[in-house]
Specification:
This protein is mainly alpha-helical and about 160 residues long. The chain has 4 helices and no strands.
């Protein structure tokens, strides 16, 4: 796979360059590792002509054995590119998980709102039920008091006669 090939739609060297630029602007170019990272990115973003020149002596059958400095550097770059690809995949997976978490949070918020509305409706229903019970209780007490008053009135009128 070429050095600048896309991984899940993301070009790793260009992605790193964007991250570096955003970080640099956030810290106002006070990053101690900026030069090292730029050198690495320049190496990975180099032209195909430069890449061919560098690989000339390190290819099998070339003037230099594969174990030479260029071969070692190429292996290190390949390792770093592999790590970068893994990190980009992890970032993409993390983004998916965050989207799922956001959807769950929205659903939970919606359910909480529905629960609150249902609780308010139930509270009002029970309040009216309680009011009706008190009205019935007061009417029953008034009827009992009326019956007692009627019995007393009848008893008083009979004793006078």
């Amino acid at each position: 796979m070429p050095a600048n090939a896309d991984v899940n739609g993301v070009n790793p060297p260009h992605f790193c360059k964007r991250v570096m630029d955003k970080t640099a602007s956030a810290y106002e170019n006070k990053m101690p590792f900026r030069n090292t990272l730029e050198e690495f990115l320049n190496f990975t973003l180099m032209s195909s002509e430069r890449r061919e020149r560098m690989s000339y002596g390190s290819a099998p059958g070339g003037a230099q054995a594969q174990g030479g400095k260029v071969g070692v550097l190429r292996n290190q770059v390949d390792e770093v590119k592999g790590v970068m690809r893994q990190n980009i995949e992890k970032v993409a997976q993390r983004g998916e998980k965050l989207e799922d978490l956001g959807e769950r949070a929205e659903n939970l918020s919606h359910d909480a709102n529905n629960f609150q509305r249902s609780a308010v409706r139930l509270k009002r229903k029970l309040w009216w039920q309680n009011v009706k019970l008190w009205i019935i209780l007061i009417i029953v007490i008034l009827v009992i008091l009326g019956v007692i008053a009627a019995i007393i009135a009848i008893a008083v009128t009979q004793t006078k006669n």
